[in-house]
């Protein structure tokens, strides 16, 4: 086991999480948001689509439904388990040129001009250098190509408070992702890195959890791993308890635990085709 795998498994154990849980909990939420992203990207029959950070492949499958057998979808993810899962789901559809590869989302290795659309569903803010990634995606696009990505516009207040509670045990966490913090910031960032015709829309997505454990499994599986990784092992039980207090406070009188997240969907085209 590598040091990072060891760290991950000790965090998983401390939080009572499992690899199986990691795979189980993402589905509905990403399917819903991925379907909206596919719709906002204006995908058309016959188009060739790349999704970076494709996870289990829910968005890829939604894209495949639209582009059909004359088009294709290609996914990349840096987690072998995700690549295996998403790859099996995509290959089961038997559409030529459609597959999933293990690769880095910030510089996926494809020929210039390979795709009509590059999608990134709730992951672009996880990249170390999103500006470099955007410039690279422009080279992968064909004429009239576009990128489409979703980001969190406003988390549910209970969700945000619970993450802040964990963050108190995780020093040096930057809660807000600079270039994606607002619509104006996204527009400025895209203009600065060679994109135009920017269209931004918002939707509120509800996520229903059985209990705080279920919520934590979801956090673990989706982006929150970065936050949990920063909590020192000895503080994990306290961090968990503090977060659960915040999440419990969000229960409705009926006992439901529903978090509403405002999600922002951005579509843009490279200013000048960056093909070779
Ligand atoms: C929040 S999930 C997104 C799920 C997926 N986009 C969907 O719509 O179903 C983020 C995914 O991005 C992947 N990821 C994060 N950083 C990455 C990187 N630098 N390179 C490749 N994949 C990455 C994670 O492994 C995870 O599967």
TrEMBL record:
One GO molecular-function entry: methyltransferase activity
SUPFAM superfamilies: S-adenosyl-L-methionine-dependent methyltransferases
Name of a matching Pfam family: Methyltransf_31
Keywords: Methyltransferase, Transferase
InterPro entries recorded: Methyltranfer_dom, SAM-dependent_MTases_sf
Keyword Protease: no
Single GO BP term: methylation
Domain called Methyltransferase: residue spans: 45-153
Protein name: Class I SAM-dependent methyltransferase
Protein source organism: Umezawaea endophytica
């Amino acid at each position: 086991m590598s040091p990072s795998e060891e760290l991950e498994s000790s965090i998983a154990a401390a939080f009572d999480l499992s690899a199986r849980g990691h795979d189980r909990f993402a589905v509905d939420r990403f399917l819903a948001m991925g379907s909206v992203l596919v719709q906002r990207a204006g995908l058309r029959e016959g188009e060739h689509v790349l999704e970076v950070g494709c996870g289990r492949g829910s968005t890829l499958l939604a894209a495949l439904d639209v582009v059909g057998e004359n088009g294709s979808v290609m996914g990349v993810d840096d987690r072998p388990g995700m690549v295996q899962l998403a790859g099996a789901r995509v290959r089961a559809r038997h559409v030529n040129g459609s597959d999933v590869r293990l690769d880095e989302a910030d510089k996926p290795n494809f020929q210039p001009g390979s795709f009509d659309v590059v999608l990134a569903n709730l992951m672009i803010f996880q990249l170390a250098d999103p500006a470099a990634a955007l410039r690279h995606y422009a080279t992968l696009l064909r004429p009239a190509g576009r990128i489409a990505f979703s980001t969190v516009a406003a988390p549910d207040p209970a969700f945000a408070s619970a993450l802040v509670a964990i963050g108190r045990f995780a020093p040096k966490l930057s809660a807000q992702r600079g270039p994606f913090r607002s619509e104006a910031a996204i527009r400025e960032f895209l203009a600065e890195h060679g994109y135009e015709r920017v269209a931004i829309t918002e939707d509120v997505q509800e996520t229903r959890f059985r209990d705080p454990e279920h919520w934590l499994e979801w956090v673990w599986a989706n982006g929150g791993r970065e936050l949990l990784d920063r909590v020192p092992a000895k503080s994990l039980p306290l961090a968990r308890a503090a977060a659960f207090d915040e999440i419990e406070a969000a229960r409705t009188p009926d006992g439901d635990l529903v978090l509403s997240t405002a999600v922002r969907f951005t579509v843009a085209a490279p200013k000048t085709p960056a093909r070779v």
